[in-house]
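Thread: FecR family protein, structure

OP (GT): Posting the sequence first so everyone is looking at the same thing. Length is 316 residues per the record. Can we get the structure tokens written out before standup tomorrow? I want them in the notebook alongside the other entries.
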Amino acid sequence: MIQLLQKYLADGCTPEEASRVLQWLDTAEGRDALQAELERDLAGSWEDESPASSPGIWTGIRERTLSRRTVRIGWRRLAAACAGVLLLAGAGFWLKARYYDTITVHSDYGMVERVTLPDGSVVRLNGNTTLTYARRWPEGEPREVAVEGEAFFSVRHTVDHQRFTVHLPDQSSVEVVGTEFDVFSRKELTRVVLNSGKIRFRTRPEALPLALQPGDLVETRAGAAPRLQRRVDTAVFDSWRDHLLTFDRAPLKDVITLLETTYGYTVTLGKGVPLDERFSGMVPSNDKKLMLEALSKVFGLSVTQEGNRLHIEANP
């Protein structure tokens, strides 16, 4: 199959051979082989392109400490033959792209970034979130982006009802035409909350879509069926856009996860810390010192900070 893959990448396959290759690329063995071909091709393309003009996708994804990093990819013959399949190794998912010149934006820990997409749609990125999209979308073609982290989308409706799809790391996706929604995907949890309009959520590309109405929330965890909630308070899930953290009976363990994944803290716990204790309320998120003081008071905890390390103790 390796020789057939190379033949496919050279645009020399018959329709029957191409079908065999595409089926093989849906397997782990096929994806590993394609990744190896991508790395070899990109390594060769770097020899005659300056790092400043073409840093490459692997560098762009790995150097996530840089805020709003833009990556321009020179796919050359591989892209032309590969029919628009782009492997995002750092994020762990596949993104089909019609145009091979893509942009990757990453927000720093604790920062909120605003990104305007080629169609005028706007995306707000919460801290430690990566967004990837094509530099341009032709009329009549699907608009596709990929997200790892948390983002709020305000999707512009087009006159030709151009579909807009958000791909997530666990292979789930959100399909819309024009709407506003919040998407969260970290570790084993994926959550989508619809503010306005209509969306369809898929747990896998081949799965039947789940239709959401405004105020609906759907969550998926690894190995579990999707959980749908109706008429939730959407402000609880997207208040981070206004530099506020809103909690609605949130357990302390979820707050600690937020501190680690969105703000980049390493958290250690003392004895007796009530991880299942729940809290409702709001705390500021754009001032880390004030945020930690507020969390300390509402949960009745002692929080000691040393750089990016937090130690939490239960008050006597």
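GT: Both are above now. Quick notes for whoever picks this up: The radius of gyration is 21 Å. The CA atoms of residues 121 and 138 lie 15 Å apart.
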